[in-house]
Design goal:
The protein is an all-alpha fold. The protein has one domain. About 85% of the residues lie in helices and about 0% in strands. Helix 2 (about 15-35) packs antiparallel against helix 3 (about 40-65) and helix 3 (about 40-65) runs antiparallel to helix 4. About 20% of the residues are buried.
Length: about 90
């Protein structure tokens, strides 16, 4: 529990930097898909995107910004689904 409190303190004290890194992560992952198209490493992109959504959600929770909490928690869910689909080669049921 102490580790999570320390991590939360770090995010709270460096919130703007954490948000900037997360936004740069999102830009990078979407740029990668745009540049590589079907050759994109989709699992990596979804995992990377999910991490940035977690960081942005965390920052939004600290700021008590309900709109961005909702938006980024939604992206966490999308990321989990994307990773599951990427792990299974986007096969249809």
């Amino acid at each position: 529990m102490g580790f999570l409190l320390s991590l939360n303190g770090f995010v709270a004290n460096n919130r703007q930097d954490v948000e900037l890194v997360a936004v740069l992560m999102r830009i990078f992952s979407f740029s990668l898909v745009s540049w590589l198209g079907p050759r994109s490493p989709f699992f990596f992109v979804w995992a990377f995107n999910t991490v940035d959504a977690i960081l942005l959600s965390w920052a939004a929770i600290i700021r008590k910004d309900r709109a961005y909490i909702l938006l980024n928690v939604f992206w966490i869910g999308v990321g989990v689904v994307g990773m599951i689909r990427a792990a299974h080669g986007f096969s249809s049921p």
